[in-house]
Design a protein that fits this description.
295 residues; mainly beta; eight-stranded antiparallel β-barrel; 61% strand; cell outer membrane; membrane; signal
Length: 295
């Protein structure tokens, strides 16, 4: 029995000495799993850059002269029937855009949040349109007339309107995903555009009073009256605003790709909708490509 214990002790000592002489293999520490992990790019920090692209503007002029016609027909029975006339239609225009941006990213693992200010200058984003409409308005509501009298108002409206978007500043919040050297993102925020907007309307109003009488035989006869102008509602009104600052909102998607160290390229699509200015609605679709540098 003592011999067995002696042999076991010798074997244990030899095994321990052999284990101490073995090389320090990485697999024993789990270090080989580092080769399976994804290499990430550090997107955290400040960045600046410039971009250029293409813009398409849609301008809705359908209600542009409503404010002017309401003024012309104020306190008259013609205001309500003409309040919603659509003299003109939507137009579209295209042009180049150039800009610059500055922002700050904060990164938590693969999630990236950021704030960015973007300036865009638009080249030849301007459009104009004209339109007219005529209508016979018979006995408009709210009018007091003698018995047997029918008032026939002939109203013709002719309008012109124009809009130009000069430049824009956006304030964005961004959310992205760290895909290594590739970062897709989406954004939304506020926009302020600088525009020139004009509108003009000319009204031509006539009145014909027809009378209905009954002759001695009981027959009803309509006597067509003479048509004459109504100078009080026949006039031209214009309004023009230059360098008008118009608020709106912005949203879009894009991606950035790291080219070398802090240098990156970006491409994005942006949608902008501005608040109405003088009853004119402007929306923009912008696509851009740019270069930036992250510090």
């Amino acid at each position: 029995m003592r011999r067995l214990w002696f042999v076991a002790a010798i074997l244990g000592s030899v095994s321990a000495a052999h284990a101490a002489d073995m090389p320090d293999l990485p697999v024993l520490r789990g270090a080989l799993t580092d080769g399976l992990s994804r290499t990430t790019h550090n997107w955290d920090g400040w960045y600046v850059g410039g971009d250029a692209g293409y813009s398409s503007a849609s301008v809705d002029f359908s209600q542009s002269v409503v404010g002017l016609t309401n003024f012309i027909f104020r306190d008259s029975v013609l205001q309500q029937p003409t309040a919603n006339w659509s003299l003109m239609k939507k137009t579209t225009t295209q042009g180049a855009n150039f800009g610059a941006f500055v922002g700050r990213n904060w990164q938590w693992y693969d999630a990236i949040l950021g704030l960015e200010v973007n300036y865009s200058y638009f080249n030849t984003i301007s459009t104009s349109t004209t339109g007219s409409n005529s209508l016979m308005i018979v006995n408009p509501a709210g009018e007091t007339r003698p018995a047997g009298i029918t008032n026939n108002y002939g109203v013709t409206l002719t309008g012109t309107a124009a809009a130009q978007v000069k430049d824009m500043v956006t304030f964005r919040g961004r959310m992205g995903w760290d895909g290594g050297d590739f970062m897709p993102y989406f954004f939304s925020g506020l926009a302020v555009g600088r525009m020139d907007v004009s509108r003009t309307v000319t009204s031509n109003v006539t009145l014909r009073q027809d009378s209905t009488v009954t002759d001695v035989f009981g027959n009803t006869i309509t006597i067509i009256g003479t048509t004459y102008a109504v100078p009080a509602q026949s006039q031209t009104q214009s309004q023009h605003r230059t360098n008008n600052f118009v608020p709106g909102w912005v949203a879009g998607v894009g991606f950035e790709y790291c080219l070398w160290e802090g240098l990156f390229a970006r491409a994005e699509w942006e949608y902008v909708k501005f608040s109405p200015v003088m009853n004119t609605n402007v929306t923009l679709n912008n696509v851009r490509a740019g270069l930036g540098y992250k510090f």
